[in-house]
Design a protein that fits this description.
The complex is a heterodimer. By secondary structure, chain A is of the alpha/beta class. Chain A has four helices and five strands; from the N terminus they run E-H-E-H-E-H-E-E-H. In chain A, helix 1 links the parallel strand 1 and strand 2. Chain B is built from 18 helices and ten strands. In chain B, strands 3-2-1-5-4 form a five-stranded antiparallel beta sheet. A five-stranded mixed beta sheet of chain B has the order 6-7-8-10-9. In chain B, strand 7 and strand 8 form a beta hairpin. Classes of the chains: A alpha/beta, B alpha+beta.
């Protein structure tokens, strides 16, 4: 069984590229969301193994979404094209498994982070 | 006018003498009982004529003189001559109506209040009609106020009973009802008056007391008999009051005159007054502590106060009056004052004229302040607009170019996977190189965006932004204190840029190894301080620090730089920030 992923980002080109890359790297992308509200709905419904969650969402902050998903059995990986130091200490406190800069995203990077924090 | 006044004066003198003789010879009164009437009449005529001369436009002087004449005509009713008696009795009560008229017309000479107007009209009607009616039936057999003497020159049908009833009716209506109404109206007038007007109206209290005394002695004693000692004392109080009242009214009327004589003092005071002091000087001299002084700014087409704030002139319904002051026909300033000063327009105008030179100066001050206020506001707006633009640019970089480059990098990485080593090593190398270049570009854009406006400032506030800044700086940086709460965005941004600039200098020029940052709110200010252990000698006039000082200045703050050679650099930014 391939690990399942939901990608949350308001930029469609990013979602498309990330989906393509992760599927090549052995993940099954089961859903996508463009904002915080639909992210919570989809993740709660699909219960994927991993949520790739952008921090800057149009309706809310990805950090808030991560906190809202605290009760759901899924692992959250925050992504952003900003540096974590530009986002602040909440990155480490919101319940997410970790952070990957968007430009460094790949199946390997994801697997490394997940196994490191498992 | 002069001749008329002289004639009234002469008539007053003659009438006084005639009255005295009538009281002494015909009524057989003592000197002490005869003189008061004459003195009361003369006091009113003299005060009235002075008021008339000094204030020709004000009818009050003429009214007072008429009252005095009416007082002196009254004793004619004691004459043994039928003609003199008839005239004296017909006009004998006119003084009562005139008394009310004078008091209620004070200080303008005009009665505007409808109730007051009606009271005076009724008083005149009663004072003329009832004695006339009495004269039609009076046969000379004596009345309450008149000893038996000649019969009326207007007698139609003798009816002594009716004559006495008519006299009694007069006493009840005028001294009973109208006097009580008069006292009530005076009290109402005083209660309603502004503080300044109330001071002017003070003599009316005396008039009210007199009316009350008269009402008691004439009306109440018709029905009860008090002890003679009491009547005696009441009489002398009345006499004193009636002599004093015209003098008090005259004094009140001329007070403005006296104040005008102090214009010299006002000029002296204005000579030494600071621009702000002119209002105080005018308020003091016009006796209106609430007086406001506003200046006309032609370029802005508006009035401003001394602090440069735009002011709308009040409309008359707001209970304040306005006197505009011009210089050579050009609008200069306006005095917003108590409406009671409307009655002394010359006073306000002369004070305004005296203050003109000082006002011209003060207007320039106000103009400069107004401009300063405008400049400060526009500066603040410019800085705020700049901040807003920086925020937008940061977002545009992040949402635009950066996202595209990220997506492209991921596409290339995916392509690498798909090709999976089945391609020419050269192509593989180019692909890897491109991905790396893209990552460098993304990271450079990130630096650029952060420099334009740090996203963390909006997300996490000053404390988070300072921590992030400290973490990224390649020195030993400690954030010792920072406010946990959020502050206004422009204050957070200004404080952040102070730390940013100071840290950049510490890294680039100071050869520092340790830096301490603290941001503390105290006494309504936010004080952000950055101290390094570098070689000092920083130049506060350098573009970085200069720009920073300008930014703080725009928010009403300031920047202090202490940087002795070899002694480290301390940069302190202070920003107003209400707790």
């Amino acid at each position: 069984m391939l690990p399942t992923v939901v990608i949350v980002d308001d930029h469609e080109p990013f979602r498309r590229s990330a989906r393509g890359l992760l599927e090549l790297d052995g993940y099954r992308v089961v859903g996508e969301a463009g904002d915080g509200a639909s992210a919570i709905e989809i993740v709660t419904r699909l219960r994927p193994d991993v949520v790739l969650l952008d921090i800057a969402l149009p309706d809310t902050s990805g950090l808030d979404v991560a906190e809202s998903l605290a009760g759901v059995d899924t692992r959250i990986v925050l992504v952003s094209s900003r540096d974590p130091s530009d986002i602040g200490p909440r990155v480490g406190r919101c319940g997410a498994a970790g952070f990957i800069p968007k430009d460094e995203l790949s199946g390997e990077a994801l697997a490394a982070l997940l196994s490191r924090t498992a | 006018m002069r001749k008329l006044q002289l004639a009234i004066g002469a008539a007053g003198l003659v009438l006084g003498v005639v009255s005295y003789r009538l009281l002494r010879d015909d009524l057989h009164q003592s000197v002490a009982r005869s003189l008061p009437t004459v003195v009361i009449g003369w006091s009113a005529i003299a005060s009235g004529l002075i008021a008339w001369r000094r204030r020709p436009a004000n009818r009050l002087g003429a009214l007072m003189a008429a009252y005095g004449l009416a007082v002196l005509v009254r004793p004619w009713q004691y004459s043994g001559e039928a003609a003199l008696f008839t005239v004296g009795y017909a006009l004998g009560q006119l003084n009562v109506a005139l008394f009310g008229h004078v008091a209620l017309a004070y200080p303008t000479g005009r009665i505007t209040d409808r109730l007051e107007l009606w009271l005076v009209r009724i008083a005149y009607t009663m004072a003329l009609l009832l004695p006339l009616a009495t004269l039609l039936v009076y046969d000379g057999s004596g009345l309450r106020y008149v000893p038996p003497g000649p019969e009326s020159g207007l007698l139609l049908r003798a009816d002594p009973e009716l004559a006495r009833d008519l006299e009694q009716t007069f006493v009840i209506v005028v001294y009973g009802i109208l006097a009580a109404c008069f006292v009530a109206l005076v009290v109402r007038k005083l209660v309603r008056a502004t503080p300044r007007l109330r001071r002017v109206l003070t003599p009316l209290l005396l008039a009210a007391v007199l009316a009350a005394l008269r009402a008691i002695s004439e009306f109440a004693f018709t029905f009860v008999s008090p002890p003679p000692e009491f009547v005696h004392r009441l009489y002398w109080w009345q006499v004193a009051g009636q002599i004093l009242l015209p003098v008090a009214l005259l004094a009140g009327l001329l007070r403005a005159r006296l104040a005008r004589a102090q214009i010299g003092d006002l000029l002296l005071e204005l000579d030494h007054a600071a621009p702000d002091g002119i209002r105080d000087a005018l308020a003091h001299h016009l006796g209106d502590p609430g007086l406001q002084l506003v200046f006309w700014l032609p370029e802005r087409g508006t009035y401003v106060d001394a602090a440069g704030t735009a002011i709308q002139l009040p409309s008359s319904s707001e209970g304040r009056s306005v006197a505009k002051i011009a210089n050579d026909g050009e609008r200069l300033a306006a005095i917003i004052h108590d409406p009671s000063l409307d009655e002394e327009p010359e006073l306000v105008r002369s004070a305004g004229t005296a203050a003109r030179l000082a006002l011209e100066n003060a207007r320039l001050h106000a103009e400069v302040r107004a401009q300063l206020v405008q400049v400060q506001e526009s500066r603040r707006r410019i800085v705020a607009a700049g901040d807003e633009q920086r925020r937008r640019i940061e977002r545009d970089i992040h949402d635009g170019a950066q996202q595209r480059l990220v997506a492209l990098a991921l596409e290339l990485r995916a392509t690498q996977r798909r090709l999976g080593g089945r391609v020419d090593p050269d192509v593989e190398r180019v692909l890897s190189g491109a991905v790396e270049e893209l990552q460098v570009a993304v990271s450079e854009l990130r630096e650029l965006a952060r420099g334009v406006h740090p996203a963390i400032l909006a997300e996490e506030g000053l404390a988070g932004a300072l921590e992030s800044l400290a973490a990224r700086t390649p020195l030993d940086v400690t954030v010792e204190r920072a406010p946990a709460e959020r502050l206004p965005p422009e204050i957070e941004a200004a404080a952040y840029f102070v730390a940013c600039e100071a840290l950049a200098n510490a890294v680039k020029h100071a050869e520092a190894s340790r830096v301490r940052i603290s941001a503390v709110r105290e006494h309504g200010r936010l004080v952000v301080e950055v101290a390094d252990d570098g070689r000092g000698g920083a130049n506060p006039a350098g573009t970085g620090l200069r720009g920073l000082a300008d930014r703080l200045d725009a928010h009403g703050g300031r920047l202090l730089v202490t940087s002795p050679a070899g002694g480290g650099t301390r940069v302190v930014g202070e920003l107003p920030c209400a707790s």
